[in-house]
Amino acid sequence: MTYDEAVTGKGIETSLLSAIKHDDVVIVMLDSMSHKIANQAFRTSKDLNKLVSSTNVNSPLAIEESIKRALNREPIYTSANHIVD
Description:
The protein is built from 3 helices and 2 strands. By secondary structure, it is an alpha+beta fold.
């Protein structure tokens, strides 16, 4: 499920909770949301005992590595150095 930060106003926390509640793995795309929403996503994921990770690069390899980190319960964030020629 995708959570879109553009959905603003009343109920944003409920929408984020709903998006995370129904997922098995949560990947937080740091370049696509505010610091506040990213932190809420991390907190909510941990409270619901979800597998969670993040990436700051929107590339298939970065997303794949982020999923692998989440599945292995490794650190949520690692800097990505992917350069596409």
